[in-house]
Amino acid sequence: MQTRAAILWEPHTDWSVEDIELDPPKRGEVLVKLAASGLCHSDEHMVTGDMALPPEIAELMGISQFPVIGGHEGAGIVQEVGEGVTDLAVGDHVVFSFIPSCGKCPSCRKGQSQVCDLGAFLLGGRQFTDQTARHHTKDGKDLGTMVALGTFSPYTVVAVESCVKIDDDIPLEKAALVGCGVTTGWGSAVNAADVQPGETVVIYGVGGIGTAAVQGAALAGANQIVVVEPVEWKREKILEFGATHTAASQEEAFFLVQQLTNGAMADKAILCVGTAKGEHVGQMMSMIKKCGRAVVTSVAPMLDDQVTMNLFEFAMQRKELVGCIFGNANPAVDIPKLLALYKSGKLKLDEMITTEYTLDEINQGYQDMRDGKNFRGLIRY
Predict the structure, then answer these.
(1) What are the pLDDT digits (tens) for 150-171?
(2) How many whole angstroms separate alpha carbon 89 and alpha carbon 80?
(3) Domain span including residue 173
(4) Domain count of the chain?
(5) Are 248 and 241 in contact (CB under 8 A)?
(6) Which of 41, 133, 190, 275 is most buried, judged by most C-beta within 10 A?
(7) Within-domain flag for 14
Protein backbone atom coordinates (compact mmCIF):
# COMPACT_ATOMS: atom_id res chain seq x y z
CA MET A 1 0.00 0.00 0.00
CA GLN A 2 1.02 3.64 -0.36
CA THR A 3 1.20 5.96 2.63
CA ARG A 4 3.28 8.90 3.85
CA ALA A 5 6.06 9.19 6.38
CA ALA A 6 8.55 11.61 7.90
CA ILE A 7 12.03 10.41 6.93
CA LEU A 8 15.41 11.45 8.32
CA TRP A 9 17.90 10.89 5.54
CA GLU A 10 20.92 11.74 7.68
CA PRO A 11 21.71 13.50 10.98
CA HIS A 12 21.62 17.30 11.18
CA THR A 13 18.88 17.61 8.55
CA ASP A 14 15.13 18.24 8.70
CA TRP A 15 12.49 15.54 8.58
CA SER A 16 11.31 14.99 5.00
CA VAL A 17 7.62 14.07 4.59
CA GLU A 18 7.30 11.82 1.54
CA ASP A 19 5.10 9.18 -0.05
CA ILE A 20 6.32 5.65 0.71
CA GLU A 21 5.40 2.06 -0.09
CA LEU A 22 4.45 -0.24 2.78
CA ASP A 23 4.49 -4.02 2.49
CA PRO A 24 1.82 -6.17 4.15
CA PRO A 25 2.69 -7.81 7.47
CA LYS A 26 4.62 -11.07 7.42
CA ARG A 27 4.68 -13.81 10.01
CA GLY A 28 4.45 -12.44 13.56
CA GLU A 29 3.60 -8.91 12.39
CA VAL A 30 0.59 -6.60 12.19
CA LEU A 31 -0.43 -3.61 10.09
CA VAL A 32 -1.67 -0.74 12.28
CA LYS A 33 -3.51 2.46 11.38
CA LEU A 34 -2.27 5.08 13.85
CA ALA A 35 -4.38 7.74 15.53
CA ALA A 36 -1.44 9.81 16.76
CA SER A 37 2.28 9.93 17.50
CA GLY A 38 4.03 11.82 20.25
CA LEU A 39 6.98 14.05 19.41
CA CYS A 40 9.49 12.52 21.81
CA HIS A 41 12.99 13.89 22.38
CA SER A 42 14.54 10.52 21.50
CA ASP A 43 13.80 11.15 17.82
CA GLU A 44 15.54 14.50 18.18
CA HIS A 45 18.60 12.56 19.33
CA MET A 46 18.65 10.93 15.89
CA VAL A 47 18.62 14.39 14.32
CA THR A 48 21.48 15.67 16.49
CA GLY A 49 23.47 12.46 16.03
CA ASP A 50 23.44 11.58 19.73
CA MET A 51 21.83 8.22 18.93
CA ALA A 52 23.52 7.71 15.59
CA LEU A 53 26.29 5.14 15.45
CA PRO A 54 29.56 6.32 13.87
CA PRO A 55 29.58 5.08 10.24
CA GLU A 56 32.56 2.78 10.82
CA ILE A 57 30.87 1.11 13.80
CA ALA A 58 27.55 0.77 11.96
CA GLU A 59 29.35 -0.83 9.02
CA LEU A 60 31.17 -3.24 11.35
CA MET A 61 27.84 -4.25 12.91
CA GLY A 62 26.13 -4.55 9.55
CA ILE A 63 23.64 -1.82 10.48
CA SER A 64 22.30 0.91 8.20
CA GLN A 65 20.53 3.43 10.45
CA PHE A 66 19.67 5.91 7.71
CA PRO A 67 17.39 6.73 6.03
CA VAL A 68 14.94 6.13 8.87
CA ILE A 69 11.26 6.81 9.47
CA GLY A 70 11.04 8.44 12.89
CA GLY A 71 8.56 8.07 15.70
CA HIS A 72 8.17 5.51 18.46
CA GLU A 73 5.31 6.82 20.62
CA GLY A 74 2.03 5.79 19.04
CA ALA A 75 -1.32 4.02 19.26
CA GLY A 76 -3.79 2.77 16.71
CA ILE A 77 -6.06 0.03 15.40
CA VAL A 78 -4.93 -3.28 13.89
CA GLN A 79 -5.88 -3.47 10.20
CA GLU A 80 -4.29 -6.76 9.17
CA VAL A 81 -2.46 -9.59 10.90
CA GLY A 82 0.34 -11.73 9.51
CA GLU A 83 0.71 -15.47 9.59
CA GLY A 84 0.88 -17.04 13.02
CA VAL A 85 -0.50 -14.02 14.91
CA THR A 86 -2.94 -15.23 17.57
CA ASP A 87 -2.72 -12.61 20.34
CA LEU A 88 -4.12 -9.78 18.20
CA ALA A 89 -6.98 -9.51 15.72
CA VAL A 90 -8.23 -6.97 13.19
CA GLY A 91 -9.97 -4.15 15.05
CA ASP A 92 -7.94 -4.45 18.24
CA HIS A 93 -6.72 -1.19 19.79
CA VAL A 94 -3.02 -1.20 20.62
CA VAL A 95 -0.31 0.99 22.11
CA PHE A 96 3.21 0.50 20.82
CA SER A 97 5.78 -0.27 23.47
CA PHE A 98 9.01 1.36 22.31
CA ILE A 99 10.91 -1.51 23.93
CA PRO A 100 9.50 -4.84 22.69
CA SER A 101 8.75 -7.68 25.07
CA CYS A 102 9.26 -11.24 23.87
CA GLY A 103 8.32 -12.83 27.20
CA LYS A 104 10.88 -15.59 26.70
CA CYS A 105 14.39 -14.18 27.13
CA PRO A 106 16.14 -14.23 30.55
CA SER A 107 15.35 -10.56 31.15
CA CYS A 108 11.64 -10.96 30.43
CA ARG A 109 11.45 -14.08 32.59
CA LYS A 110 12.93 -12.12 35.49
CA GLY A 111 10.28 -9.41 35.09
CA GLN A 112 12.73 -7.00 33.44
CA SER A 113 11.14 -6.76 30.01
CA GLN A 114 12.31 -3.16 29.65
CA VAL A 115 15.68 -4.71 28.76
CA CYS A 116 14.25 -7.52 26.59
CA ASP A 117 16.89 -9.16 24.40
CA LEU A 118 14.99 -7.98 21.30
CA GLY A 119 16.30 -4.52 22.16
CA ALA A 120 19.56 -5.55 20.53
CA PHE A 121 17.85 -5.04 17.15
CA LEU A 122 16.33 -1.62 17.80
CA LEU A 123 18.99 0.63 16.25
CA GLY A 124 19.07 -1.49 13.11
CA GLY A 125 15.54 -0.35 12.29
CA ARG A 126 14.50 -3.57 10.55
CA GLN A 127 11.80 -6.08 11.48
CA PHE A 128 12.68 -8.36 14.40
CA THR A 129 11.17 -11.28 12.53
CA ASP A 130 13.58 -11.55 9.60
CA GLN A 131 15.78 -8.41 9.63
CA THR A 132 14.27 -7.09 6.41
CA ALA A 133 12.33 -3.88 5.67
CA ARG A 134 8.59 -3.39 5.15
CA HIS A 135 8.91 0.33 4.45
CA HIS A 136 10.36 1.57 1.13
CA THR A 137 10.78 4.79 -0.82
CA LYS A 138 8.73 5.19 -3.99
CA ASP A 139 11.76 4.09 -6.02
CA GLY A 140 12.24 0.93 -3.93
CA LYS A 141 14.97 1.91 -1.43
CA ASP A 142 14.60 0.22 1.97
CA LEU A 143 13.76 2.48 4.90
CA GLY A 144 14.57 1.85 8.52
CA THR A 145 12.09 2.62 11.29
CA MET A 146 12.82 4.18 14.67
CA VAL A 147 13.11 1.25 17.14
CA ALA A 148 11.28 -0.93 14.58
CA LEU A 149 8.10 1.17 14.88
CA GLY A 150 8.15 4.30 12.69
CA THR A 151 5.12 6.13 14.09
CA PHE A 152 5.77 9.23 11.99
CA SER A 153 3.45 7.65 9.46
CA PRO A 154 -0.32 7.04 9.60
CA TYR A 155 0.29 3.34 8.82
CA THR A 156 3.09 1.04 9.88
CA VAL A 157 3.94 -2.65 10.16
CA VAL A 158 5.37 -3.83 13.47
CA ALA A 159 6.11 -7.06 15.31
CA VAL A 160 3.49 -8.27 17.80
CA GLU A 161 6.14 -8.06 20.54
CA SER A 162 5.91 -4.27 20.24
CA CYS A 163 2.14 -4.13 20.77
CA VAL A 164 0.10 -3.91 23.96
CA LYS A 165 -3.65 -4.40 23.57
CA ILE A 166 -5.78 -1.80 25.37
CA ASP A 167 -9.48 -1.17 26.05
CA ASP A 168 -11.44 0.23 23.12
CA ASP A 169 -12.91 3.12 25.14
CA ILE A 170 -9.56 4.83 25.75
CA PRO A 171 -8.88 7.75 23.34
CA LEU A 172 -6.03 6.53 21.16
CA GLU A 173 -4.43 9.95 20.79
CA LYS A 174 -4.02 10.09 24.57
CA ALA A 175 -2.99 6.45 24.87
CA ALA A 176 -0.13 7.11 22.45
CA LEU A 177 1.75 8.97 25.19
CA VAL A 178 2.16 5.88 27.37
CA GLY A 179 4.12 4.16 24.60
CA CYS A 180 7.23 6.00 25.78
CA GLY A 181 7.20 9.32 27.64
CA VAL A 182 4.56 8.78 30.31
CA THR A 183 5.66 5.25 31.17
CA THR A 184 9.30 6.35 31.21
CA GLY A 185 8.69 9.34 33.47
CA TRP A 186 6.19 7.67 35.80
CA GLY A 187 8.41 4.61 36.14
CA SER A 188 11.45 6.79 36.82
CA ALA A 189 9.75 7.91 40.01
CA VAL A 190 7.79 4.80 40.99
CA ASN A 191 10.15 2.02 39.87
CA ALA A 192 13.69 3.37 39.49
CA ALA A 193 13.64 5.98 42.27
CA ASP A 194 11.21 3.93 44.40
CA VAL A 195 9.64 7.09 45.79
CA GLN A 196 8.02 6.47 49.17
CA PRO A 197 5.28 8.40 51.01
CA GLY A 198 6.56 11.52 52.72
CA GLU A 199 9.79 11.82 50.75
CA THR A 200 11.32 14.90 49.13
CA VAL A 201 11.99 14.45 45.41
CA VAL A 202 13.86 16.71 42.98
CA ILE A 203 13.09 16.41 39.26
CA TYR A 204 15.32 18.06 36.68
CA GLY A 205 13.48 19.12 33.51
CA VAL A 206 9.78 18.90 32.72
CA GLY A 207 9.10 17.95 29.14
CA GLY A 208 6.91 14.91 28.57
CA ILE A 209 9.05 12.62 30.71
CA GLY A 210 9.60 15.06 33.55
CA THR A 211 5.88 15.91 33.72
CA ALA A 212 5.08 12.21 34.04
CA ALA A 213 7.81 11.81 36.67
CA VAL A 214 6.18 14.55 38.73
CA GLN A 215 2.85 12.74 38.51
CA GLY A 216 4.48 9.43 39.43
CA ALA A 217 6.16 10.94 42.46
CA ALA A 218 2.90 12.57 43.56
CA LEU A 219 0.94 9.33 43.15
CA ALA A 220 3.63 7.50 45.14
CA GLY A 221 3.02 9.88 48.04
CA ALA A 222 5.99 12.27 47.90
CA ASN A 223 5.53 15.13 50.34
CA GLN A 224 7.67 17.69 48.52
CA ILE A 225 8.36 17.64 44.77
CA VAL A 226 10.87 20.25 43.63
CA VAL A 227 11.17 20.86 39.88
CA VAL A 228 14.32 22.39 38.41
CA GLU A 229 13.34 23.98 35.09
CA PRO A 230 14.71 27.11 33.35
CA VAL A 231 11.52 27.82 31.34
CA GLU A 232 9.21 30.07 33.39
CA TRP A 233 5.82 28.98 32.02
CA LYS A 234 6.71 25.34 32.68
CA ARG A 235 7.61 26.15 36.28
CA GLU A 236 4.17 27.71 36.70
CA LYS A 237 2.21 25.01 34.87
CA ILE A 238 3.93 22.03 36.51
CA LEU A 239 2.32 22.93 39.85
CA GLU A 240 -0.95 21.67 38.32
CA PHE A 241 0.61 18.22 37.88
CA GLY A 242 1.69 17.80 41.50
CA ALA A 243 4.92 19.75 41.93
CA THR A 244 5.09 21.65 45.22
CA HIS A 245 8.10 23.91 44.55
CA THR A 246 10.11 25.05 41.53
CA ALA A 247 13.53 26.53 40.87
CA ALA A 248 15.15 27.97 37.77
CA SER A 249 18.67 26.64 38.38
CA GLN A 250 20.77 24.11 40.29
CA GLU A 251 21.97 26.78 42.71
CA GLU A 252 18.47 28.03 43.46
CA ALA A 253 17.20 24.46 43.88
CA PHE A 254 20.07 23.47 46.19
CA PHE A 255 19.36 26.23 48.70
CA LEU A 256 15.59 25.65 48.41
CA VAL A 257 15.93 21.92 49.16
CA GLN A 258 18.37 22.66 51.97
CA GLN A 259 15.79 24.96 53.51
CA LEU A 260 12.86 22.56 52.98
CA THR A 261 14.68 19.63 54.59
CA ASN A 262 16.51 21.44 57.40
CA GLY A 263 19.80 20.63 55.70
CA ALA A 264 19.18 16.90 55.22
CA MET A 265 18.64 17.29 51.41
CA ALA A 266 16.35 15.28 49.10
CA ASP A 267 15.58 11.58 49.34
CA LYS A 268 15.51 11.15 45.56
CA ALA A 269 16.56 13.07 42.43
CA ILE A 270 15.56 12.24 38.85
CA LEU A 271 17.23 13.55 35.68
CA CYS A 272 14.68 14.22 32.91
CA VAL A 273 16.41 16.96 30.89
CA GLY A 274 16.51 16.80 27.11
CA THR A 275 20.13 15.62 26.89
CA ALA A 276 22.08 14.17 29.82
CA LYS A 277 25.56 15.53 30.43
CA GLY A 278 28.27 14.36 32.75
CA GLU A 279 28.03 17.35 35.06
CA HIS A 280 24.34 16.63 35.71
CA VAL A 281 25.31 13.54 37.69
CA GLY A 282 27.42 15.50 40.15
CA GLN A 283 24.63 18.05 40.56
CA MET A 284 22.11 15.35 41.39
CA MET A 285 24.43 13.58 43.80
CA SER A 286 24.97 16.82 45.72
CA MET A 287 21.19 17.27 45.92
CA ILE A 288 20.44 13.98 47.70
CA LYS A 289 20.91 13.05 51.34
CA LYS A 290 22.83 10.19 52.94
CA CYS A 291 21.50 6.91 51.48
CA GLY A 292 19.61 8.95 48.88
CA ARG A 293 19.10 7.80 45.29
CA ALA A 294 19.73 9.63 42.00
CA VAL A 295 18.18 8.32 38.78
CA VAL A 296 19.45 9.02 35.24
CA THR A 297 16.55 8.78 32.80
CA SER A 298 17.69 11.31 30.16
CA VAL A 299 19.44 10.07 27.02
CA ALA A 300 23.09 11.04 26.66
CA PRO A 301 25.18 11.01 23.46
CA MET A 302 26.11 7.37 22.78
CA LEU A 303 29.86 7.92 23.03
CA ASP A 304 29.82 10.30 26.01
CA ASP A 305 31.80 8.66 28.85
CA GLN A 306 32.78 11.62 31.04
CA VAL A 307 30.96 11.93 34.38
CA THR A 308 31.90 14.26 37.23
CA MET A 309 30.96 13.42 40.82
CA ASN A 310 32.51 13.26 44.28
CA LEU A 311 33.51 9.62 44.79
CA PHE A 312 34.34 10.06 48.48
CA GLU A 313 30.87 11.40 49.18
CA PHE A 314 29.35 8.70 46.97
CA ALA A 315 30.83 5.90 49.08
CA MET A 316 31.03 7.44 52.53
CA GLN A 317 27.44 8.70 52.48
CA ARG A 318 26.19 5.51 50.83
CA LYS A 319 24.47 7.32 47.98
CA GLU A 320 22.97 5.42 45.03
CA LEU A 321 23.18 6.21 41.31
CA VAL A 322 20.66 4.25 39.22
CA GLY A 323 20.15 3.90 35.47
CA CYS A 324 16.66 3.85 33.99
CA ILE A 325 15.20 2.86 30.62
CA PHE A 326 11.48 3.00 29.84
CA GLY A 327 10.86 3.73 33.50
CA ASN A 328 12.20 0.25 34.36
CA ALA A 329 8.62 -0.78 33.61
CA ASN A 330 7.08 -3.96 32.27
CA PRO A 331 4.96 -2.63 29.39
CA ALA A 332 2.40 -5.45 29.22
CA VAL A 333 1.51 -4.74 32.86
CA ASP A 334 2.31 -1.07 33.38
CA ILE A 335 0.77 0.39 30.20
CA PRO A 336 -2.74 -0.91 31.07
CA LYS A 337 -2.15 0.15 34.70
CA LEU A 338 -1.35 3.72 33.66
CA LEU A 339 -4.35 3.88 31.34
CA ALA A 340 -6.55 2.68 34.21
CA LEU A 341 -5.20 5.57 36.31
CA TYR A 342 -6.05 7.90 33.41
CA LYS A 343 -9.62 6.58 33.20
CA SER A 344 -10.07 7.13 36.94
CA GLY A 345 -8.81 10.72 36.69
CA LYS A 346 -5.61 10.13 38.66
CA LEU A 347 -3.18 10.51 35.73
CA LYS A 348 -3.30 13.61 33.53
CA LEU A 349 -2.71 12.86 29.86
CA ASP A 350 -4.95 15.40 28.11
CA GLU A 351 -3.22 18.24 29.94
CA MET A 352 0.23 17.02 28.89
CA ILE A 353 -0.52 17.60 25.20
CA THR A 354 0.43 21.22 24.65
CA THR A 355 0.08 21.42 20.85
CA GLU A 356 -1.20 19.14 18.10
CA TYR A 357 0.40 19.10 14.64
CA THR A 358 -0.18 17.50 11.26
CA LEU A 359 2.53 15.24 9.88
CA ASP A 360 3.56 18.01 7.50
CA GLU A 361 4.19 20.27 10.51
CA ILE A 362 6.67 17.90 12.17
CA ASN A 363 9.68 20.19 11.82
CA GLN A 364 7.72 23.03 13.44
CA GLY A 365 6.77 20.65 16.24
CA TYR A 366 10.39 19.85 16.97
CA GLN A 367 11.39 23.50 16.76
CA ASP A 368 8.71 24.26 19.36
CA MET A 369 10.19 21.53 21.55
CA ARG A 370 13.66 23.05 21.25
CA ASP A 371 12.21 26.46 22.11
CA GLY A 372 10.61 25.09 25.29
CA LYS A 373 7.03 25.69 24.10
CA ASN A 374 5.64 22.20 24.76
CA PHE A 375 5.30 19.63 27.50
CA ARG A 376 4.47 17.18 24.72
CA GLY A 377 3.70 17.88 21.07
CA LEU A 378 1.47 15.39 19.25
CA ILE A 379 1.03 14.50 15.59
CA ARG A 380 -2.68 13.81 15.04
CA TYR A 381 -3.64 11.67 12.04
Answers:
(1) 999 999 999 999 999 999 999 9
(2) 8
(3) 2-179+349-380
(4) 2
(5) no
(6) 41
(7) yes
